[in-house]
Fold this protein.
Amino acid sequence: MKPDNRPIGIFDSGIGGLTIARSVSMLMPHEQVLFFGDTAHLPYGDKSAESIKSYVSRIADFFIDNDCKLILLACNSASAAAYPMLHRLHSETHPVLNVIDPNVEYAVKQAYKTIGVIGTKATVTSRAFNRKFASAKPELKVKSIATPLLAPMIEEGYFNNNISQTIINSYLSNKKLDGIEALVLACTHYPLIKNEISRYYAEQKSNVEVIDSTDVIAAYTQKYMQKHKMLAAADRHPEHQFCVSDFTVSFQKTTNIFYGEAVKLTHVPIWG
Ligand code: DGL
């Protein structure tokens, strides 16, 4: 089988998606990642589906122009609003993956009867998770709430402290989430507060599994690429590329939080 050494295009509204880029590159070190964060339009969580679709379709062209073999929409808000359109437009030539399917596939295999989902307003109001769960396992009860303060809080470096724990506790104590057995962290930023979320449930003495979506998404992507014979040669150590549509020193500094090490951002002003 001939290896496919073209890059994987990983997209996010900003730099939170670096959590997923990190998981993908750790699991598949021979794959080259071309990351694009649409920092010019961040946050997507408060945008309309129409706006998100128009941004995402332009960035898909960027990945295609850069010869990516696969596009991973590593943003829950973008996956919720724009995945069906992107899949319809490009999947014949460029497979498109989203971050909702891997979580749904993982969760329906477990014995849960009731599952919770937290994410941005765009993700939760789209009901994309509810629809996918309903078609994969109709008897599973899905309870979702929007938790819009969490992403900006994490971006500002507020996690693992009293303030963040208080905000997290306040969201998770919402009656709408009562009775859940697992919680899907449906936002790029939330892996960074997984411990605080688990601490809340531990203190409540409730046995809720907090699903770390980054690993689930990376494993799903790898399985897809194996199945479709898209893997790169095993002797490569490629350099990744990290692009943003708007550059600030603050974005550059924050890469460390999400990628676990500082990465160099390249400004690609695709919006002119
Ligand atoms: N990347 C977004 C998501 O996963 C969170 C940040 C934003 O609102 O743009 O939904």
The chain has a mean pLDDT of 97. The longest strand covers residues 114-119.
